[in-house]
Amino acid sequence: MNNLDYSRLSYLGDKVRAGNASKVEKDEFMSILYNDGKISPVQYNDYISNRNVENIINTALAVGAVLLIGYLLSEVIKG
């Protein structure tokens, strides 16, 4: 797999989902997904520009969940 910090992604995703994430934590969550190519530049720029934020965050949470499921499955297969 890649060098994505899955534990950090999971931690931040949990906080965002629960509504307990600070702006800095939300920004980090979105940056992780953007830097790994999991959300598009348009989505990231819209998030940064405060456009359609709720929909973009919901999409990012779904993408993050799929990434984590894939990671866990790969760990089970390896192990």
Oligomer: single chain
Helix content: over 70%
- Indicate the structural class: mainly alpha
Beta-strand segment tally: 0
Give the H and E element order.
HHHH
Mean pLDDT: 95
Strand content: under 5%
Quick one: biggest sheet?
none
Radius of gyration, Cα only, in angstroms?
A: 13 Å
**Total helical segments:** 4
- CA-to-CA gap between the ends? 14 Å
General form: globular
Q: Kindly give the count of domains.
A: 1
Unreliable spans: none
Structure characterization notes:
There is one protein chain. By secondary structure, this protein is mostly helical. It has one domain. It is 76% helix and 0% strand. The chain contains 4 helices and no strands. The longest helix is centred in the C-terminal third of the chain and has 26 residues, at 53-78. It is globular and about 40 Å long.
SSE inventory with pairings:
Elements: H1 6-18, H2 23-35, H3 41-48, H4 53-78
Helix pairs in contact: 1-2, 1-4, 2-3
Keywords:
76% helix, 79 residues, single chain
Short account of what is shown:
The protein has 79 residues and is mainly α.
